[in-house]
Design brief:
The strands form three sheets. The chain has an eight-stranded parallel barrel, surrounded by five helices. It has 14 helices and 13 strands. The N terminus is likely disordered. With 327 residues, it is of the alpha/beta class. The relative contact order is 0.12. The two termini are 35 Å apart.
């Protein structure tokens, strides 16, 4: 017996449910039935739960469709492009840009009045071979071309943009951008984005595993280049690298902190998986973060079975544990 049949049998109408202070959100297709539980209107879904703490909840992904699109429509206060802004995808050939996926994601965000976040302009990974083969002296022009193209097409649509992602790995900067320009690629990228898109929030996004990366984030904040810090949170169960002192220091410096890439892997059982997500929610609340973005809407994601929803878009127990926990 499904919930609709139960209510009919019990003689309870939708109006009756509303009068009792409950919200009811059901989406039915031939492939899936219920996304969200029957819950009181003080703790409805994760979008509303996190909003009570001043946090925007959202998802990263591509051009959402099917039940993933339904989840986004129900829950997302912010939408992040998972790959569409990366150079390999946005500019697969030197003289060819591919805007379609970004356009699709913006339309989804715009339709539900969600903030639209671009990930990422500069990164050491997911760059096309033509870019990697470029003479170093040609790289600065590519940087400005990319920024100019993004500004022309989405400068008035983006809410925020990861200008640079992961400058330091194991205390050392690396990658084609760094090889060609040194750390000046970071400074130029932030300065050019500020010039071309002054109303877009400029974000430095990273893991912050090491002290060099944390110190660099503080430098970017103090110089006025970074207006927000994106704290990645691809967590292996039992081995979180998140640093609450660092996160609170960022917030105390007057810029936003985003939990920008959230996934949980390696949990031995459901209980430990649930606890990792509770800990992540608690970290967001305690640190003063203003964003909580799950990397993918449903399993499998880039990180495996790491999200808050099964492959049919039904919520995992961790979803409800976050909402019902006392913080």
């Amino acid at each position: 017996m499904n919930r609709r049949q139960f209510l009919k049998l019990a003689g309870v109408s939708a109006a009756g449910i509303a009068s009792l202070g409950f919200e009811r959100t059901i989406r039915a297709t031939e492939n899936y039935n219920v996304y969200l539980p029957f819950v009181t209107n003080t703790k409805t879904n994760l979008k509303h739960f996190f909003a009570q703490h001043g946090i925007d909840f959202g998802f990263a992904g591509g051009c959402f469709s099917g039940c993933s699109l339904e989840l986004v429509n129900q829950e997302a206060a912010v939408i992040t492009t998972e790959v569409a802004f990366k150079t390999e995808k946005l500019r697969p050939e030197r003289y060819t840009f591919y805007p379609d996926d970004v356009d699709c994601m913006y339309e989804i965000a715009n339709n539900i009045e969600a903030k639209f976040h671009g990930h990422t302009l500069c990164w050491h990974s997911q760059n096309p071979q033509w870019f990697l083969d470029l003479p170093n002296e040609e790289v600065p022009a590519i940087l400005e071309e990319n920024i100019a193209y993004i500004a022309e097409h989405w400068g008035d649509k983006l809410y925020s943009l990861d200008v640079v992602n992961e400058t330091f790995i194991d205390e050392v900067p690396f990658g084609k951008w760094y090889e060609a320009m040194g750390l000046d690629y970071v400074y130029q990228a932030f300065d050019l984005v500020a010039a071309y898109m002054p109303n877009v929030i400029r974000v430095y996004n990273s893991t912050f595993w090491n002290e060099a990366d944390k110190a660099f984030a503080f430098e970017l904040i103090n110089s006025g280049r970074a207006q927000a810090i994106g704290q990645q949170a691809h967590i292996w169960a039992g081995n979180s690298y998140l640093d609450l002192d660092f996160a609170q220091s960022v917030v105390n410096m007057g810029v936003d902190l985003y939990l920008s890439e959230i996934s949980v892997r390696g949990a031995e059982d459901e209980e430990s998986f649930n606890q990792e997500y509770i800990d992540l929610a608690n970290f967001a609340i305690q640190s003063g973060a203003s964003r909580f973005v799950i990397w993918g809407t449903k399993d499998p994601t880039w990180a495996g079975d790491s999200s808050l929803h099964y492959s049919d878009c039904t919520a995992k127990p961790a979803y409800y544990e976050i909402i019902n926990n006392d913080y």
